[in-house]
Amino acid sequence: MKGFSLIEILIAVAIFTFVAMLSIGSLLILTTAEKRVAGIQTSQDNVRFAVEAMAREIRTGALYRKDDHCGGSIDCFQFTNASKNGIVYKLSSDSTQCSPGTPSDSRCLLKSLGEVQPDGSFLFSTFNPLTGSDVSIDDLRFLLSG
Fold first, then answer.
1. Please, how many CA atoms are within 13 Å of residue 94, restricted to the half-sphere of its CB?
2. Mean pLDDT to the nearest integer, 14-32
3. Where are the alpha helices (DSSP H) in the chain?
4. HEC profile for 125-146?
5. Contacts of 46 (CB under 8 A, 6+ apart)
6. 64: pLDDT strictly greater than 90
7. Nearest one of 66, 81, 84 to 140, comparing CA atoms
8. Which of 20, 27, 28, 75 could pair with 91 as two cysteines, CB 3.0-4.6 Å apart?
């Protein structure tokens, strides 16, 4: 007799089903991992942009200090940029100052642009978040020396 028996067909279908399930499981795991990696990459890009923007502005600035608006805090830094505007970078006290969608237990990096007054003090506007809602900063310290 030619052909396959019922047992042979059942075994072939079982093997095919097993291999198909393994393949689908692997694809689901890879998709989940890819989404996680994409999220981490976005967060790293966001922080990299913020740090590069700060470094560029600080490098061309002057009158670096941690008084006036900072109140001696180590997570706050102010200076005058190349355009003679006052700049303050500081860590937010809570998530209400951050971008919409920021988790309630997160903090972000804030920036304020202000005017330098004739007496050398700064007059600042509101603080705006420099990092996105997907970034949470746990610790930020500025060290001013020299």
1. 2
2. 95
3. 6-59
4. CCCEECCCCCCCCCCCCCCCCC
5. 131, 132, 134, 135
6. no
7. 66
8. 75
Q: Contact 120/108 with Cβ under 8 angstroms?
A: no
- Percent above pLDDT 70 for the chain: 92
* Residue 110 backbone phi and psi in degrees, to 5: -115, 150
The pLDDT, as a whole number, for residue 82 is 85
d(CA 67, CA 130): 21
Q: Is residue 101 a contact partner of residue 133, using CB atoms and an 8 Å limit? A: yes
- pLDDT at position 127: 83
Task: Using DSSP, state whether 122 is helix, strand or coil.
Answer: strand
Q: What is the pLDDT of residue 104?
A: 72
CA dist., res. 21 & res. 136, Å (int): 38
106-112 average pLDDT score: 84
Longest CA span, the chain: 105
Contacts of 128 (CB under 8 A, 6+ apart): 110, 111, 112
